[in-house]
């Protein structure tokens, strides 16, 4: 009782620190110890065989690094563009749907958003199998947390758990660049977690081979006070730009909006259709195609000098 009273009687800064400590303790307790690593490999953590060679990292790189060695034996599916950003109306999550294995388009219908629960989403970038497996496993642990504690896990604790989990396999060839986005009792929250265990909190992230192009659109159009329609249009345009310019991204755009009452799937949009025709009759969208050549058709020749 005293701890509850002291928490709500403290300043906002100290309350935030206290809340972060509690979330870290929750994530650590899911590992079976105060420090977070006491029962690693013993309780609740999956294990798998690694190559029985002196240096597993170099072994995996030698057989799977298709970017530097096109003749490598195993071409892992990767190549993507994912993004997420916070704004006054929640969080927008947008992804493409292409997976490549070397120069081969392995799939054009990959679902790169993992629906962890009604209030929590995860994105996939890097190795498709790694992201799907570990984020699905994260969903299991989030559900167990709800059953044990009778409340939803916070976004911070979920991202911390994933960070701790993949850090235990650092150097073993995992390839992940994920974003964990959701809404908890503190409001909308967004974290970036990668396969090295790095964990960052922020308002805007884009991950993948096409993120350079997506960031160009996001940096030009992002504001905190965007309306819901404007934010959805910004996410659509950013993924379109990446899909149009990056050979390893494309096919379709999947768009999600995370709100206080949970996430909502906005729609699936074909990149080619967006280029020539636009998204159609959707709120906030400017009529016409997104493509530069479509928007400027016939304009480049106006006023040009003619040669007799």
UniProtKB/TrEMBL annotation:
It holds the Pfam family Proteasome. CDD domains: proteasome_beta_type_5 (cd03761). It catalyses: Cleavage of peptide bonds with very broad specificity. The keyword Nucleus applies. SUPFAM superfamilies: N-terminal nucleophile aminohydrolases (Ntn hydrolases) (SSF56235). One of its GO terms (biological process) is proteolysis involved in protein catabolic process. The active site is at 80 (nucleophile). InterPro entries: Ntn_hydrolases_N, Pept_T1A_subB, Proteasome_bsu_CS, Proteasome_sua/b, Proteasome_suB-type. GO terms for molecular function: threonine-type endopeptidase activity. Keywords: Cytoplasm, Hydrolase, Nucleus, Protease, Proteasome, Threonine protease, Zymogen. It is found in: Cytoplasm; Nucleus. The 26S proteasome consists of a 20S proteasome core and two 19S regulatory subunits. The 20S proteasome core is composed of 28 subunits that are arranged in four stacked rings, resulting in a barrel-shaped structure. The two end rings are each formed by seven alpha subunits, and the two central rings are each formed by seven beta subunits. The catalytic chamber with the active sites is on the inside of the barrel. Component of the proteasome complex. Belongs to the peptidase T1B family. Component of the proteasome, a multicatalytic proteinase complex which is characterized by its ability to cleave peptides with Arg, Phe, Tyr, Leu, and Glu adjacent to the leaving group at neutral or slightly basic pH. The proteasome has an ATP-dependent proteolytic activity. This is Proteasome subunit beta. It comes from Botryobasidium botryosum (strain FD-172 SS1).
